[in-house]
Amino acid sequence: MDMETGHGPFYFDLNTGAKMPSVGLGTWKAPPGVVGEAVTAAVKAGYRHIDCAHVYDNEKEVGLSLKELFSAGVVKRSEMFITSKLWCSDQAPEDVSKALTRTLEDLQVDYIDLYLIHWPFRTKPGSRGWDPEIMVPLCLPETWSAMEGLYASGQARAIGVSNFSTKKLQDLLKFAKVPPAVNQVECHPVWQQPGLHNLCKSTGVVLSAYSPLGSPGSWVKGETLKEPILIEIAEKLNKSPAQVALRWGLQSGHSVLPKSVREYRIKENISLFDWSIPPELFSKFSGIHQQRLLRGEFAIHETRSPYKSLEELWDGEI
Fold first, then answer.
1. Is the pLDDT of residue 149 over 80?
2. pTM
3. Of 151, 87, 86, whose CA–CA distance to 113 is shortest?
4. Which 8-state DSSP code applies to residue 12?
5. Would you place residue 219 in the very low, low, confident or very high pLDDT band (cuts 50, 70, 90)?
6. Is the four-CA dihedral 138, 142, 146, 148 of positive or negative sign?
7. Looking at residue 240, what DSSP letter applies?
8. Residue 151 known to be catalytic
9. Quick one: average pLDDT of 54-64?
């Protein structure tokens, strides 16, 4: 990646002053036994950003790979940007710090570059899943205050959120003493999120895209890479549909977190900086039919959840 002559953005400036690499390796649905090799291959291919979460059940293995890479001198800790996320069952303010401590131990690092509230949704401490029996009322101002404490301590060098709608992000910005640095959400050519993009740009929050390829092969069953407009543009540019989807994200002004465990795909997914999509092709993306893939039905319940409908969960952005 030649930053002098290449096509950026190579990183995004966070409101903390930190620089977040524009492409990161996603680790959701990367099974233990495989994720470690993926992290090693990614770092050797030039990735400097790894996106993790406690609930992915693979942070220990990611940590082992990072430790080996640091020990072997392949990369320094200071050159890596590592993200993790606070799960729904750890949102009680007294549990937030403990959750980060556990993640730091698993990843074998003494600070995290970015720590996110995973969902605007809360479950009972120690629980797993989304069963209505374990749903409890939100306490977002208190949870955020505890996140601010982690930022003040230096254990989390930036804090943010994930899966927050435009309205939920606006509400958080009203009471946050430390504004969120990032909102990590589903974003790809089939779900472009223009309204949320505009709010993020106007408030200095960086939008980061999970499932930037539409999660093919997962239970989300996205068909983004089969989108005819995407295939047409890929053929014209002699690139893969995945590369075009990722390059669209970078040129739209957000970071992308493609997940793969195959080395050739990992390399392909970061080969984005020596070309760009010309304006006449970029404009064609506006013709793609829009559809949210990860809809969040699991968070909906008539009485137990704060959200009685998908409309409420996403504040109409569905």
1. yes
2. 0.96
3. 151
4. E
5. low
6. positive
7. -
8. no
9. 95
